[in-house]
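Before relying on records like the one below, remember that each one covers exactly one chain. Contacts with other chains, cofactors or solvent are not represented anywhere in the record.
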Amino acid sequence: MINLSDTKLGVLGGGQLGKMLCLEASNWHVQTYVLDPSGDCPSATVCSSFTRGDFRSYDDVYNFGRNVDILTIEIEHVNTDALQKLENEGLLIRPAVNILRTIQDKGEQKKFYTSNNIPTADYTICSKKDDVINALQKGNIEIPFVQKSRTLGYDGKGVKIIRSDNDLDSLLDGPCIVEDCISIKKEISVIAARNSEGQVKCFPPVEMVFNQEANLVDYLISPPDITEKQSSLAEDLAFKTINAYDLNGILAVEMFIDENDRLMVNEVAPRPHNSGHHTIESCITSQYEQYLRCLLDLPLADPGMIMPSVMVNILGEPGYEGEAKYLGLRECLSINGAKIHIYGKSLTRPFRKMGHITIIDTDKNSALEKAKIIKDSLKVVS
């Protein structure tokens, strides 16, 4: 017999992903405990218990973990030494610490793909900016290329696209990887879930359209404009990747489709992901419920699509920084099928993720038209 109300689920990080996980857990009366440095983080008002502390601090993470039954993350950049001690003491941690350490480091991620025959863009590992320049001078890498910091990058941070010699002044310093700048036809994502019994279910692929200025997702389209064969191959690649990691939990697998229609893995996230927000309304099971099922060792549910959708990220407007104000909400709420999620971040800044809107519609083109209206109408200013 399962008594879910007695389960104390700990979450490192109190951002919007943690908030939506806590809201889903409340449907089953699972107690949620959140650790975050900010007392007004999105999760603080919806979790069962909030602790103010730093998820990068050994002591904060260790002391927090001692008071929960299961510990998970909503952000990768957490103190893994404390997690390792907790895991050694018998605490159930998902994803497992060794997996998290690999994924935290984009260089280790790349090595993992190579050793497991998972297709990915060719890459070079460099320890500092000068190594990138030297590799360029020796002809080991060529412009254009993409430089990524090995650690701490997210939401477009820690990524530089070098298109010409003039861009070299903006190179990132510190450990990094340099990837070939491939010709991309589509960027897609597949979210895979895997429980402790090895059962795997994949959500249908989505297409990711990026804001070129901020290098983060502008909106998502489900289903994507790809062939059935490509869709099947993408789910197979996500299936292969989560099994290779032997991961119990959820894994967002971001992929490229190049101009030759080859699929390759870009990077992964071992947690709920921005590319799965639409599942709350448009799929039989949301990514958050599926993640809970993984965390609680329950059977996985059907992730199938109910109807097409477009998800628009609500981003802070360029040129505004301060207390958030939302312009155009009334107009957006008048659009049929628009489901609005405001994360509750009190301060806005340029391109900060402040919320999202999922538009569900029986016709994908109609959903896209509504998404364009919303992008023009809704602004987050200060």
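The first strand starts at residue 8 and ends at 12.
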